[in-house]
Amino acid sequence: MIEKLTDHLPHISCREATKLISDSMERRLSLKEVILLKIHLGVCELCRRFKKQIKSLRILMRSYSPEKENVLPETWKNDLRKLLNEQP
Ligand SMILES: [Zn+2]
Hints:
Helices cover 74% and strands 0% of the residues. By secondary structure, it is mainly α. Helix 2 (14-26) packs across helix 3 (31-43), helix 2 (14-26) runs parallel beside helix 4 (45-64) and helix 3 packs across helix 4 (45-64). The site of zinc ion has 6 residues, from helix 2 and helix 4.
């Protein structure tokens, strides 16, 4: 079933795949985009690595940008407040 479905979908290039990966950080991908990306990630190790990297990069960026404090888990917020309060 899945094999038949993927037979009809175009294979995307690494460039398109990395763009979809970046896009997926900003917006929700459509079902077609998710499937296309999954097919590509299934065959391309480079893009799998790229996806891993961008994920950890994103987590880092989030934890360091103060205006996005609201996305941090509550426990992190408490830890941050403690740290801030401890500073002179
Ligand atoms: Zn690729």
